[in-house]
C-alpha cells in the first residue's frame, strides 16, 4: 500500500501534522532545522501543501518570553499553520523514568508512523494500559515482538561500549528529531531490539527533542 493511501481523506479536517519543540530563553528553538526538515518530508510524502515562508512567519509571530517554552507548530493539509507557546518545566537532573511494555502493538508496515501527526489512537491506547504512577512512559512493540518506541519518546539502549542502539525505522516508529540528531552525530545507531535487550542493557534512555534524554528502567511488575 502506498503511504498516501493510508492518509485520511481531505474531508477529515482533524488530521494534521505537528512539531513539538523547545524554545530557549534567548528565543532559539532547539534543533529547529531537523524539525523543519521532518515537517517538509512529511508534507511531501503525505500530500500536504508546504510553504516555508508561512511556517517561518508563524514561528516569528510569537513574542520572546525570556524563559524556556514548549512550542507547538501545526500544519494543515492546505498549508495553513499555527504556532503556539506554552509553559515548560524541564525534567529534573537525576530523574529516572519507569517504563512498562504495552499489549497494544504497532505495525511495521505502517509507514504513516514515521510522521508526527494527529493520528495518535494507538499511542493513547498504550498509555491507557498503565497508571502514570506505575509507568512514566509506555513502550510499544510491533507485530513481530520488536521494540519500537514510547508513546511520546524514542528509545535508546546501551548494550556495549559502542554507540547507543535505537530501534530501526523499519520496525515501525516515528522518525524522532532527537533520535535523528543522535544518529547524525554518531552517538546512536539503528538496530533491531527485543524486550530481552532491555534486561541486558547497561543503560536505558528515552527521550525527545523537547525533553532531551531521560534515564529509564523497566518496571519489574
From TrEMBL:
Keywords: Lyase
Pfam families tied to this protein: Aminotran_4 (PF01063)
GO MF: lyase activity
InterPro entries: Aminotrans_IV (IPR001544), Aminotransferase-like (IPR036038), BCAT-like_C (IPR043132), BCAT-like_N (IPR043131)
UniProt key word Translocase: no
NCBIfam families: PRK07546.1-3 (NF005729), PRK07546.1-5 (NF005731)
Protein name as it appears in the record: Probable branched-chain-amino-acid aminotransferase
Amino acid at each position: 500500500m502506498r503511504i498516501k493511501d493510508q492518509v485520511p481523506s481531505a474531508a477529515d479536517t482533524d488530521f494534521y501534522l505537528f512539531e513539538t519543540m523547545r524554545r530557549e530563553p534567548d528565543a532559539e528553538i532547539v534543533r529547529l532545522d531537523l524539525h523543519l526538515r521532518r515537517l517538509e518530508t512529511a508534507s511531501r510524502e503525505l500530500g500536504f501543501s508546504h510553504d516555508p515562508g508561512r511556517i517561518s512567519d508563524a514561528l516569528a509571530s510569537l513574542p520572546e518570553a525570556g524563559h524556556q517554552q514548549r512550542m507547538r507548530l501545526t500544519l494543515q493539509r492546505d498549508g495553513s499553520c499555527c504556532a503556539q507557546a506554552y509553559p515548560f518545566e524541564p525534567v529534573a537532573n537525576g530523574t529516572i523514568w519507569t517504563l512498562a511494555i504495552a499489549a497494544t502493538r504497532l505495525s511495521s508496515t505502517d509507514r504513516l508512523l514515521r510522521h508526527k501527526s494527529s493520528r495518535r489512537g494507538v499511542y493513547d491506547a498504550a498509555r491507557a494500559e498503565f497508571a502514570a504512577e506505575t509507568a512514566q512512559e509506555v513502550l510499544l512493540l510491533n507485530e513481530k515482538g520488536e521494540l519500537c518506541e514510547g508513546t511520546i519518546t524514542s528509545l535508546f539502549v546501551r548494550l556495549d561500549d559502542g554507540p547507543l542502539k535505537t530501534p530501526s525505522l523499519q520496525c515501525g516508529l516515528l522518525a524522532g528529531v532527537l533520535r535523528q540528531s543522535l544518529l547524525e552525530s554518531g552517538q546512536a545507531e539503528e538496530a533491531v531490539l527485543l524486550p530481552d535487550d532491555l534486561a541486558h542493557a547497561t543503560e536505558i534512555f528515552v527521550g525527545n527533542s523537547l525533553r532531551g534524554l531521560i534515564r529509564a528502567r523497566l518496571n519489574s511488575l
